[in-house]
Amino acid sequence: MQPRWEMAESRPHEEIDRLSRHARVPYMVARILLNRGIDTPEAVEKFFAPSPAQLYDPFLMSGMESAVDRIVEALERRERIAIYGDYDVDGITSVSLLYLFLRDLGGDVLAYIPDRQNEGYGISQAGLDEVKKQGAELVISVDCGITSISEAQYAKSLGLELIISDHHEPADGLPDALAVLDPKCKGSGYPFTELAGVGVTFKVAQGITQRLGLDADFAFRYIDLVSLGTAADIVPLVDENRVLVKEGLEKLNASPEVGLASLIESAGIRGGKIDVGQIVFNIAPRINAVGRMGSAMRAVQLLTTRDKSQAREIAQVLEQENRRRKEIDNDTLTQALEEIRYTMNPSDAHSIVLAREGWHSGVIGIVASRLIERYYRPTVMISVENGMGKGSARSISNFDVYQALKACSDLLEQFGGHKYAAGLTIPAENVPAFKQRFEEACRDLMTEDDLVRKVRIECEISLDEITTDVVQSLKRFEPFGPHNTRPTFVSRGIESAYAPKIVGQNHLKLVAMQGGVQFEAIGFNMGDKIDRFMNGRRHFEMVYVIEENEYMNRKTTQLRIKDIR
Predict the structure, then answer these.
(1) What percent of the chain has pLDDT over 90?
(2) Which of 156, 155, 197, 148 is nearest to 174 (CA)?
(3) pLDDT at 87 over 70
(4) What is the Cα–Cα distance from 188 to 177, expressed in whole angstroms?
(5) Where does the pLDDT of residue 470 fall: very low under 50, low under 70, confident under 90, or very high at 90 and above?
(6) Reading across the β-sheet that carries 421-427, which strands appear in turn?
(7) Among 116, 186, 235, 427, which residue's beta carbon has the most beta carbons within 10 A?
(8) pLDDT digits over 363-378, tens only?
C-alpha cells in the first residue's frame, strides 16, 4: 500500500524568519526547529548542545532516597548485592552498568539474568531462589520488576530485601519492595517519564555518586553502556535520553570498554563512526542474540570483562549466535507468512495474532516487527510449548499495544511492556479467545486512519536549497531516533539524470536532478520501484532525508529516499 504523505503544518513566515536570524540558522532549519517545538534561541542552543548539565537531580524520583541509602549501607557492610535484570539489550546493559559501578566502589556484587526459555521475563521465584543460594542479601532489579507483586512477597519470605528499578508501565498496584523506582509510576515526581531501563539504572548510579560525595564524572564511567541500552530500546531520543545517548556515543567512538571494543571489531563495524543506526541494526542484534538463543549472561560477561582475550572469545560466540538467530528468524518468518496467506486477509483485519508450537521464543519479537513492516498491523507472535504460550507483541505508530493487551488481561497469565512493545504468557487453550478479543480491542482503540502508513514531511524544498550550511546544521540534530527523527523533505519536478539502476540487494540508485543541481540518491529495498522509470519516464517527486555519505575517505551529500512517485 502506498503510504500517505503528510506535510507538517508550517508556522508563520515571520516566526520562522525571526528564529532564523536570532538563532543564526538557515531558514529551512528554523522551520524544522519550530515544527519540533524549539522556538527560542535559548532552546535552540540547548537542543544543539546537549550536555550533562541538562540532566535532572536523581533524587527528584520517588523512592531514590531510600534506594540509595540502602545500597550505600550494603556497600559499607560488605553485604552481597544481586543485580537482577532482563535478557534484552536494555536489561543486559543495565545489569552490566550497575555491576561495574558497584564493583568499582568495592561492592560484593553478583549479576543475574533469567533464562528466556526456562524462566521467562522478569523476576521469578526460581531466580530469587538462585540469588539467595549465591548469598545475596539485597536484590536490585533493573529493567524489570514493576509488575512483580507476588514475587516481591516471595523475596520477603526468603529474607531478601528488594529494590525495584524499572521503566515499564506499572499495573494497578505496586510491589511491596524497599523502594520502587519507575518514572512512569503515578506520583514518581520525576520530570521525564521516557527513560529506558538503563537510564533509570544510571540515575541510581548518579544518586549514589552524589550521596558518597564523589566527582560527578564517576557515574559517567560506563556511559557508553547507557547509550547502547537507550538507543536499542527505541525510547524517545529527547530530553535526558538525548543527553545520555550523545555522551555515550562520544565514549563509544573514542574509548569503548574492552568488551564493546571486541564486539565492534568482530562485527566489522567501523569504530569512530558509530551512530544510533549502527547500534540498532548492528551492535544490539548481536547482544540480543545470546539472550534469544541461550544465556544472556554471556553478554554480561562480555560487557564487564577487562580481559581482552576473553572479550574476543565471547564476541566471536555472539557473532555465531547472531548468524544462527538470523537463520531461525528467516524460517519463522516464512512459516508466519504462509499461515497468513492461508488463514486470513490482513487488509480486512485490525491485528495479526499467530501461534504455533516449535517457534523459538527468542525470535518471535523480531518476526512480529517484520510482519508489521509488510502489513502494518499490531502483531502478536506466540510460541507454544507444553500447553503454555509465550508471546511478543509489537505495535504501529500511535497505537498503544499495552492497552490492547490490558483489555485481554483475564485471558493472560502475565503481561508487561509499554506502548510499542510488550511480552505476554498465555495458556494455549486461551489463544483462540485471545485472537478474537485482541482484534476487538484494536478495533475499539484505533481508527481506520491509524492503519494507513504515513510519511511525515517537514517541508517542501528545491534541490538548490541543500547547501553546505544546511547539511552541517542538520547534523546538529543528531543523535536521531524516535521523536527526533531525521528531517524529511519533499521535492517535486525532479528527473533522473541517468537511467536508475538496482545495486546491492534490491536497492534503487539514481541521480536526482533539478534545474542543473544534482545529488546521488538511494532507496534501500526499493528496487521494485524501478519499473516506474520504464518507457522513458524519468520525472518524479521524492520524499527523502539528507545524509552525509563517506566512501573511500571522501564525503558527499546523499539523499536517502523514503518514498517516490
Answers:
(1) 76
(2) 148
(3) yes
(4) 15
(5) very high
(6) 352-357, 379-385, 388-394, 421-427, 414-417
(7) 235
(8) 898 899 999 999 999 9
Do 181 and 63 contact (CB within 8 A), yes or no? yes
Q: Is 561 helix (H, G, I), strand (E, B) or coil?
A: strand
Q: Which domains does the chain have, with CATH numbers?
A: 54-320 (3.90.1640.30), 344-450 (3.10.310.30), 455-564 (2.40.50.460)
DSSP 283: I
Q: Give the Cβ contact number of residue 306 at 10 Å.
A: 10
What string of DSSP letters covers 332-347? HHHHHHHHHHHH--GG
- Give yes or no for a contact between 306 and 260, defined as CB atoms under 8 angstroms apart: no
Of 475, 480, 523, 473, which is closest to residue 503 (Cα–Cα)?
523
Element (H, E) at 133: helix 125-133
Strands 379-385 and 179-181: unpaired
pLDDT tens per residue across span 150-173: 999 999 999 999 999 999 989 888
Q: Which three cell numbers stand for residue 359?
A: 517457534
Q: Alpha helix locations (H) across 24-77? A: 27-35, 41-48, 64-77
Q: Quick one: DSSP state of residue 281?
A: I
* Measured CA distances, 415 to 29, 121, 168, 412, 470 (Å): 42, 9, 11, 7, 46
